[in-house]
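Please go through the protein record below and see whether the fold suits the sequence. Record follows.
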Amino acid sequence: MLDATTITAPAGTFRGATAAKVTSWRGIRYAEAPIGPLRWRDPVPAAPVEGVLDALAYGPVCPQPVNPSIPLGTDIVQNEDCLSLNVWAPADAAGPLPVMVWLHGGAYTFGSSSQPLFDATSIVTSGQVVIVTVNYRIGALGFLDLSELLPEGGFDRNLALKDVLTALRWVQTNISAFGGDASRVTVFGESAGGGLVTTLLAVPSAEGLFHRAIAQSSPASSMYGPGRARAVAERFVTEAGLDGAAVTALRELPVEDVVRVGQAVYAAVPSTDPGTLAFAPIVDGDLLPEAPVDVLSEGRGIPVPLIIGTNKDEASLFKFMKSPLIPITDDRIQQMFTDMAADDPSIDMPPIEQVRGAYEHARQGAIGLGIARDIGFRMPTLWVAEGHSRVAPTYLYRFDHSAPFLRLIGLGATHATELPYLWGNLTSGPKDPTFKLGGKRAAIEISQRMQERWTRFAYGQEPTADGAVDWPRYDAAARDTLVIEHTDSVVPDLDAALRSAWGDEVLSFS
């Protein structure tokens, strides 16, 4: 029987809290504070706790700009000392349960493991699983690579990715004390978190740290190499006014300035180079030897079962928020195509008019949204599904459901709108307008089915749901896609027109 109050693991002894038949332990350190001389250095695994630690409150979140679309919760502190994780488990669990390790999204620049949306009470009780949510370094603190620009500074690269690997090793060592089964770990994430999941599948040293994977709205092709990483670092150093300054000045830069400068770079890079991100994992030839989209599309990723998919209207949120990340206007899309061809002359780029033809029935103004959605999310997802299905069971979905209010304001099934359904936290409070025009009953039913499918997959079963259509494995013959709506359906070759328009070439932003 799982102790509902105090747990002793190799990492130390932790006192949790029980509510609604779920015990949670929050703010557990998995790596030492990456501050001072450890800023922009590889994570150092945390030393075991001495005595009993009250794991009752979330740890600090990684410093970041304010983003109204990503509420971090109340009483949350921002601090570089942010490398912590949280564990939820059924209070009455008997025997080791499957573990699901969540990597939050936020364009590699925003978000945290403690967002109210990611309270795991609902999914733990319905699915009888152990959930772990992980903080990792974001923005310039997690993805800036100064190693080539300032080789004398002892700077490391791919820090956020290494944070996640360190957390997964913590899970392997410690999770049995919390009622989890270290031999059944599913890593799952959305947006940037989904990008980290598909990246992990291409990291050779990650093999054995997880046994199943779920990638939701992964920007799988949005990585870059050392050359682009150096250009971002140069931009950061210039923006910070530290050209020619000593290396120590960067490590002594107030964290508020790191965030401010990082935000300026975050906004500037996609404005000058549409379709690219300032901060993302780096194809460094070492930890990440090759671009993940290339590895996975060729069936060379870590061969674990995979669920992967996107939302029907991914890009509408970026237009609504006036985000610089997604190229929507004609001139920005044209520049993106030109830049991609220049980056890799060996790529056989599809003619832009051929691509536009796939959206010929879209209303005026929606063509750019469709192209942005598909080059950013849907096409990389199809390339990954096609290749990975040759080496492991793979399941492809598209989330099409949206509440009437979201349809009315033109968002539809936009980016991240599947998350409240998966986590069972359908509203953010009494003022949440999502179900102002109805749709709550349908949402509850969809939520129950998603939780069943995701958690049964974590158990090593087929991702089925009671009373719903079975979800066939993806293969190159049928190309079945589960369409998640009020009533789920399976559609063969849902993306045939897209594949025809974009062609067979795998495009990468690296």
Q: What stands out?
A: The chain has one domain: 6-463+470-502. The domain at 6-463+470-502 is CATH 3.40.50.1820 (Rossmann fold).
